[in-house]
Design brief:
The structure is a single chain. The chain is of the alpha+beta class. The chain has one domain: Arc Repressor Mutant, subunit A. It has helices spanning 2-13, 21-30, 37-49, 91-103, 120-124; strands spanning 19-20, 53-57, 63-67, 75-79, 85-88, 114-117. The strands form two sheets. A three-stranded antiparallel β-sheet has the order 1-3-2. Strands 5-4-6 form a three-stranded mixed β-sheet, with no helix packed on it. Strand 4 and strand 5 form a beta hairpin. The protein is globular and about 55 Å long. The termini are far apart.
Length: 125
Amino acid sequence: MTTRREDVRRALTESSGFRSAQDLYADLRADGSKIGLTTVYRALQALSDSGEVDVLRTDEGESVYRACDTEDHHHHLVCRTCSTAVEIEAPTVERWTTEIGTLHGFTNVTHTVEVFGTCADCSAR
């Protein structure tokens, strides 16, 4: 599994955007790997659990994955067309999350924020 996990991690690292398990599977198979789709899913789950990859759900409900540039909490600006992603900081969101939790008596509040749009390259096409 470790070698397969490394293959999946490498494929994600070589990509600039979020990728589905099926996309990664197709790329790995095209490169000659004999990896199975179930193994790709398992590797992605392990990488996600360890915090090595980010996972988000698309508007269609599909999980997509991306190798993290940082282990720190962050958000993404994602192109709807090509899936290119940029890691962004959102201090206003961080403050609001803390304030809204405190206002309602919540502790240990977490959140996920992903911003979607169309990148400059795709807009120019």
